[in-house]
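Support request from a user on the community tier.

User writes: "When I paste my C-alpha cells into the form, the page sometimes reloads and wipes my input. The last time it worked, I copied everything first. Here is what I submitted, just in case something in the input itself triggers the reload:"
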C-alpha cells in the first residue's frame, strides 16, 4: 500500500501517482469503466478478466466485472 506522511492513500476503486492521497481526491482518479482496483494506494487499475466490463467507474473488485447484456459488446478504447 502506498502512503505518505501527510494523508491517506487513494481509496480502492481509484489510483494515482506514488504519494497521491485521498484528501479531497485531489490526485486520485477513479478506475475507468472496464477496470477495477481492490487495493488502496494503487498506481494503476486492473482490467476486468475475460473481456468483461463494469457498470460504472470506480469498481473495487472483480465481482464488479460482468459480461455485457445479450446483443451488446464492450469496446476497450485502450486496446
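"...and here is what came back when it finally went through:"
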Amino acid at each position: 500500500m502506498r502512503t505518505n506522511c501527510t494523508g491517506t492513500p487513494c481509496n480502492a476503486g481509484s489510483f494515482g501517482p506514488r504519494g497521491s492521497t485521498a484528501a479531497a481526491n485531489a490526485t486520485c482518479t477513479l478506475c475507468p469503466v472496464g477496470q477495477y482496483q481492490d487495493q488502496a494506494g494503487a498506481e494503476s487499475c486492473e482490467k476486468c478478466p475475460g473481456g468483461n466490463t463494469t457498470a460504472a467507474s470506480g469498481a473495487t473488485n472483480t465481482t464488479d466485472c460482468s459480461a455485457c447484456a445479450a446483443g451488446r459488446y464492450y469496446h476497450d478504447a485502450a486496446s
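Agent notes: The reload is a front-end session timeout and is unrelated to the input. The CA atoms of residues 34 and 44 lie 13 Å apart. The chain has no helices and four strands. Escalated to web team.
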